[in-house]
Specification:
Mean pLDDT: 80
CATH architecture of the largest domain: Up-down Bundle
CATH topology of the largest domain: Rhopdopsin 7-helix transmembrane proteins
Strand content: 15-25%
Number of strands: 29
Shape: rod-shaped
């Protein structure tokens, strides 16, 4: 510093020789180096080129970015001033953010109900998407306008009451590094920065809701359309929360990731070759993936990077794959582009879905835009550079090196620009800026009036905020709640985050390089669970490749109905094979994890994709099988009755008297009853038929078999009694036969009584034995008792057969022993065959087997024992005499 030097050389600082605190790293030195050597002297302008100032009683500052400055990386191998360049890239769309702030200030000043007699002004600085320029702008806010003397408050007139910052999260933190030391309120729009416990964040208010709500909304969107196979690309470290916290929750809901890739980040370094190489590799991954849906978590300029990736694909003639994706973009992303991209195709985002902070149309905003004119906005340091890039013209005094074929007149119309260069509708970011200004104004409005003192000045009266500490506004900002001019509610939660929802927009592009956002859904976190997420699927325009139908995004084809998923080894769980449902199971939805059985009263159809009601069935009289059994039963019943009648008519003949006439009558009556018992097995089972069916059958057949046993026993004893001196004579007689029949029948009666007492049979329905039928049947109750009944009857039959077989050659009248042997051979054969057959059949055919066994055994007994005798009685009466009987015995 030389006090005798001229005014512009009194104070000179060389940034390259300064060792800066580690906290600032190389950020502020870059700013100073950028200007080669910044000559700071009292009264000289600050080095930020693009500013926008409007005076007012209270000033609200804004640090926004419109131009992107590319510079060479600092290697510290030579003087920094020789390594930096002045390459500027303008994002024309971001000029709307600046206009939105100016419009909000105008709207507040014209509303006497908010700050009456107090006018708001603003001072907007360009942050150039650079940490160093953001630091410099933050220091500028702490100085008088036009004097770069940080922390020197010779007049508080220009100290802002709040600062609006954006649109990138990282530059908001750079701003907070300086301003939070002064507890200055900072409202950030655009992306929501990473939350931490740093005290700097205590003075930040986010015009962005809790990102957890947005992540849940993306998950609900994916699940609604059943997009279970997706790709994810993210841009910077702010996406760490999304990748680390949200994606695991997606996976828990069954969503798999074809790829999770970082795509290039726009950097102050102008190493385009490295960025394009990285971008090309990301493009290859995206385009070769089978995932049709890609979630993009980025920043305000992410679409500009995606356009570069699309252009790479266009040059490689593989752009159709890029256009075939459904992009799902987070609310931080907005449409931005550099001016040199004006001719690039934007069709790749046709059909994309994006989240956006809930917004409403503000009355008068488009008219305010239409009134912008660079010839009259002298304080607007942004408008001329925007105008030149947007309309591809140049002003005579342009600060940029623009090669344009014509000069700008200032009369060009913003509404004639395509949407890819500038939007006339207010974007959600601009809406957030408007709400931020409104929030500050309402906070000032509700502050205690004792803080405002009236002071008269030349030129009129106005309110002035004297001795106001910036931190005092925080309490009112945090607790503010109001409706803006469009009726939208604005309030903050306890963490300083905006309490609002999200709109879901569908992007529709047109051939003239413009696009339209169509609101097709919304996410309202504060609503009841069933109303938080809504989507109007019919209003969505899908990418052209999908022929206007909802696209699928899955690792493989869906498993059809009737099939279930089976995991594929070595692949994510979303990738699977399909297998046919096993017998008896179905799958009535696509991609089921496993097949399931139908309810008991239903069965799978032939395709195994649905259940069909089972038919109720039982052995009825109307069906062929029932008619057949009924016919045979009645026929044999008639024949048995006829035989009984013949025996009763010829009861005095020797052939009837031989071998105990009463036993023959009892046996024939038992056969009649057994044939009548068959009708208990046919028809719908009832309580009484079920009780009598097996017990009556067991009792009747036990009587019949015991009669045969008695007959056989009498034959054996009669032969033994004929021997001289035999003591068996006293056992031969009617008492023995009656005793055998009564004793055997009593034992079977006791077994049946115990059965009925402990576990009687009952009507039941069998839903499982037959695939397509519900069989009405009689449940035996106790299968043990049922087998005891059959076992005892079988025991009697075996004993009878054994005795008859041993006595088959004994001399006997009319070959009685042989006939009994044949009859018991038939009887035992039938019932020995019955057991395995009965156990191997199902449904009503089990009843049919038992009926057939009763018919066959009854017919066998009737035929083998009584038909030979009837033959003699009816056809050979000459043999039916006592003389013949004696002769046969001899």
């Amino acid at each position: 510093m030389d006090v005798e030097a001229p005014l512009d050389k009194k104070f000179i600082i060389h940034g390259g020789a300064i060792v800066w605190p580690s906290k600032f790293k190389q950020l502020l030195p870059q700013v100073i180096s950028k200007r080669r050597s910044i000559h700071c002297s009292i009264g000289h302008p600050v080095p930020i080129l693009h500013q926008y100032y409007q005076s007012g009683d209270l000033i609200i500052a804004g640090i926004m970015s419109q131009l992107f400055i590319f510079s060479n990386a600092i290697t510290f191998e030579k003087h920094p001033s020789l390594e930096l360049s002045d390459d500027h890239m303008l994002m024309t769309q971001l000029y709307q953010h600046i206009v939105a702030l100016a419009f909000a200030i105008k709207d507040i000043n014209e509303n006497p109900q908010i700050l009456s007699n107090v006018s708001l002004g603003f001072h907007i600085y360009n942050g150039y998407f650079s940490a160093s320029w953001t630091f410099l702008a933050s220091f500028e806010l702490l100085s008088r306008r036009g004097r770069f003397i940080p922390n020197y408050k010779c007049d508080v007139e220009n100290i802002p009451v709040a600062v609006i910052g954006g649109p990138n999260y990282e530059f908001c933190f750079h701003m907070a590094t300086v301003l939070s030391m002064y507890k200055m309120p900072q409202l950030t729009y655009g992306s929501a920065p990473i939350r931490n416990d740093n005290i700097q964040t205590e003075f930040l208010h986010w015009m962005f809701p809790d990102e957890a709500h947005q992540y849940n909304g993306i998950l609900q969107l994916l699940l609604h359309f059943r997009w279970m196979w997706i790709g994810v690309i993210f841009q910077d470290d702010n996406s760490a929360i999304f990748v680390q916290n949200a994606l695991p929750a997606f996976a828990q809901s069954g969503i798999c990731f074809a790829f999770i890739e970082r795509f290039p980040k726009l950097s102050v370094s102008n190493d385009f070759d490295a960025m394009m190489e990285e971008g090309f590799q990301t493009s290859i991954i995206i385009m070769t993936s089978s995932a049709n849906v890609v979630v993009v978590h980025g920043e305000v300029h992410s679409i500009m990077i995606l356009r570069m990736l699309s252009q790479v694909a266009e040059m490689e003639d593989i752009s159709m794959t890029m256009k075939a994706k459904v992009w799902i973009m987070t609310a931080q992303v907005d449409f931005t582009s550099f001016s040199f991209q004006r001719s690039w195709d934007i069709h790749f985002i046709h059909g994309a879905l994006s989240f956006a902070i809930h917004s409403k149309d503000l009355l008068g905003f488009q008219e305010f835009l239409q009134m912008r004119n660079p010839n009259f906005e002298k304080e607007d340091g942004f408008i001329k550079v925007f105008w030149e890039k947007a309309f591809n013209c140049s002003f005579p005094d342009s600060s940029l090196d623009i090669e344009a074929e014509r000069f700008c007149t200032g009369e060009e119309k913003l509404e004639t620009l395509p949407g890819s260069l500038f939007e006339m509708n207010m974007t959600s970011h601009s809406y957030s800026i408007y709400n931020a200004i409104s929030a500050v104004a309402h906070a000032l409005h509700v502050m205690p009036s004792s803080k405002l003192k009236y002071r008269a000045r030349a030129g009129g009266s106005r309110w002035n905020l004297l001795n106001q500490q910036p931190w005092q506004i925080h309490h009112f900002l945090r607790s503010i709640s109001f409706n803006n001019s469009a009726g939208g509610e604005v309030s903050f939660d306890q963490n300083g985050e905006l309490v609002t929802g999200f709109d879901i927009n569908n992007w529709v592009t047109f051939p003239n390089k413009t696009f339209h956002r169509v609101k097709v859904g919304k996410l309202i976190p504060q609503a009841p669970p069933e109303k938080r997420f809504t989507i109007h699927e019919d209003g969505i325009t899908w990418p052209s490749r999908f022929n206007h139908t909802k696209p699928l995004s899955q690792c493989n084809e869906n498993c059809c109905l009737g099939y279930s998923k089976i995991k594929t080894e070595g692949m994510p769980f979303c990738c699977y094979d399909c297998r046919l449902c096993p017998e008896g199971k179905i799958s009535n939805q696509k991609d089921m994890d496993d097949c399931f059985q139908c309810p008991g009263d239903q069965y799978p159809n032939s395709n195994k994709d649905g259940c069909v009601p089972k038919v109720i069935t039982f052995l009825s009289y109307g069906e062929p099988l029932g008619i057949t059994f009924t016919t045979f039963s009645l026929s044999i019943l008639f024949i048995t009755s006829l035989v009984l009648g013949i025996f009763m008519k010829h009861k005095e003949t020797p052939i009837v008297k031989a071998n105990n006439r009463n036993l023959s009558y009892t046996l024939l009556i038992s056969l009649l009853l057994s044939l009548l018992c068959i009708f208990l097995f046919i028809g719908q089972p009832g309580k009484l038929p079920c009780l009598l069916r097996q017990t009556a059958f067991g009792m009747i057949f036990s009587v019949a078999v015991s009669c045969i046993l008695a007959k056989t026993t009498i034959v054996v004893l009669a032969f033994m009694a004929t021997k001289p001196g035999s003591k068996m004579r006293k056992w031969v007689g009617k008492q023995l036969s009656s005793s055998i029949v009564i004793c055997c029948s009593f034992i079977q009666a006791m077994i049946c009584s115990v059965w009925l007492a402990i576990s009687p049979p009952f009507p039941d329905s069998d839903m499982h034995s037959m695939t397509k039928e519900i069989v009405l049947e009689c449940n035996e109750g106790s299968t043990v008792m049922f087998h005891c009944v059959l076992g005892f009857m079988g025991f009697l039959a075996i004993v009878s057969f054994t005795l008859a077989f041993l006595a088959r050659k004994l001399p006997d009248s009319f070959n009685e022993a042989k006939f009994i042997t044949f009859s018991m051979l038939v009887f035992c054969s039938v019932w020995l065959t019955f057991v395995p057959t009965y156990l191997s059949t199902k449904g009503k055919y089990m009843v049919a087997v038992e009926i057939f066994s009763i018919l066959a055994s009854s017919a066998g007994l009737l035929g083998c024992i009584f038909f030979p005798k009837c033959y003699i009685i009816l056809l050979k009466p000459e043999l039916n005499n006592r003389q013949n009987l004696i002769t046969r015995n001899n």
